[in-house]
Amino acid sequence: MRKLLNSELNRLSIEEFKQHDKISLIVVLDDVRSLNNIGSVFRTADAFLVQEIHLCGITAVPPHREIQKTALGATESVDWQYFENIEDSVKMLKKQQYKIYAIEQADESIDFDKLKVDKNEKIAVIFGNEIKGVNESVLKDIDGCIELPQYGTKHSLNISVCAGIIIYQMFQNLKKH
Question: Domain containing 73 — which CATH number?
Answer without folding.
Answer: 3.40.1280.10
